[in-house]
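Anyone else keep sequences and structure tokens together like this?

Example one:
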Amino acid sequence: MCRWIAYSGTPILLSRVLFEPTHSLIDQSLHSRMGVETTNGDGFGIGWYGDDTAATPAVLRDVGPAWNNRNLREVAHHVRSGLFFAHIRAATGTAVQQSNCHPFRHGPWMWMHNGMIEGFRLMRRDLAVAVDPALYPDIEGTTDSELMFFLALTFGLTDDPPGAVARMAGLIEETAHERGIRNPVQMTIAVSDGDGLWAFRYSSEGRSRSLYFSTDVATLRGLHPDAAFLQNISDETRLIVSEPLGGLSGAWNEVPENSYGLVQPGRDALHSFHPVRPAP
């Protein structure tokens, strides 16, 4: 389906994460080890916050593969950010076009997704009608991923991200079950407002796509005192990835099934996740 990376911490060049690791996101675009598809070449996108975290994040998206895009390489080697997203796409039935590439943006919020809504074609109209009419004109593409984002915005993402995502997933499951679709939701999601970073791993069938978070930096320094790059990043630095970027022992931890995590200044948090039927 897709692969993605979310980074939060010490501002670094995007290329340090996108290109340099042994199993970088660029490598995964050709040689994914844990995805449904080995190759993820149906477009890519990066989104990053600058020094003014209250501002709208910058987004660069294109329909070509990430592995040979000169603009991506140019930007990644010159832009520094302390919070950024990167996504490589393997389409699941919707068109390969720029407006369907992740991450999606609305105001200060960014959203990216790996997975699908089973039976989306049958449910698209009903789900679209549930979007707040004031938000609906801002939907640009045709993907289930973007519609999930706008449903979450409708259900209060800006005030309560976990609750909004739970209500979004609950609506999809309720709508699907009315049509005899048993396991409609498959999702790993990253969402941020430039301050907090939330990541969700859930599927209706209990067999979700892969998702990992990095071990805290202080622990990694103790495990690998000779790793020079660990000396130049803060203890707050954290990565969430569809699959590990390299073989550094002890560096990666699987996000549990049906859970979400919050990366924030201070102590991170990991919680269980359960869809909730939204109020009428």
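And example two:
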Amino acid sequence: MNLQTKIPLKPNTYNQIDYHSKVLLLGSCFSENIGEKFEYFKFQKLQNPFGILFHPLAIESLITNAINEKEYTKDDIFFHNEQWHCYDSHSKFSNASEIELLQNLNNQIRSTHQFLKEASNVIITLGTAWAYRFIETDEFVANCHKIPQKRFSKELLSVEQITESLEAIMSLVKSINPKVAFIFTVSPVRHIKDGFVDNTQSKSHLIAAIHQVIEPRNHNYYFPSYEIMMDELRDYRFYKEDMLHPNAIAVNYIWERFVQVWISEETKTTMKSVDEIQKGLSHRPFNSQSDAHQTFVKQLEEKKHLLQSNLPHIIF
């Protein structure tokens, strides 16, 4: 008896990810979930250098500023609730020190610029088509930083606006890295603060826009994480307590489906070795001085050395 309707997926022939790939992950909190998997398995990656970005215009702004190597100054930040903030970045960058905030922003811009030139794959997870425009400057922001909502206008980005933004992102990146491959996906997290109907409309705009730019011949692809969550995992046991975010089981499941499509068979063997070492490093012995544990530690070091001799960028 088959108790699931599974989305048919097959391995991608080109642009597969291996341990020589450099992967940039941008977008909503779901990109953080997948990014943690890349981190665990020790792939070369850069994840949300400006923090979580929910809508495509915020991602486009980051890419534009990174390509142009923008230098952030006092004019780009503001003071509110005893901290300095930047409308381009997530609140995790907010800082009590004006100097430290600017240093962090500019360091991230430089590292993103360099990584974009070397990236093999850019994975973009779009979360919402709703965006906030700061009325005083008439510009869209990545984060409102708890500034009173009356100072913003909330707007639903049209399919055309999103399409143009995605095309701009790809054009900008390929201007300095023509061989890069893009993987687009839509976050399965529902933004019910926007309202149930409005959230559905938002996701529809994102999906429609992405499919306007998907073209495998140009190395632009779609991965159906949203559809997997909505269809294959259509049960609340796959959600966290808020009934909105995928839980660990769901994240692991979608990661396995991603691996099925995007990770080469040879790379999967290396992933198993990394997993064994990670589990060994997390092991807590009853007696750390015992002969058995010392033998275990020695064998673990040998496994690490063997792996790192072939892939020196891997650091545990």
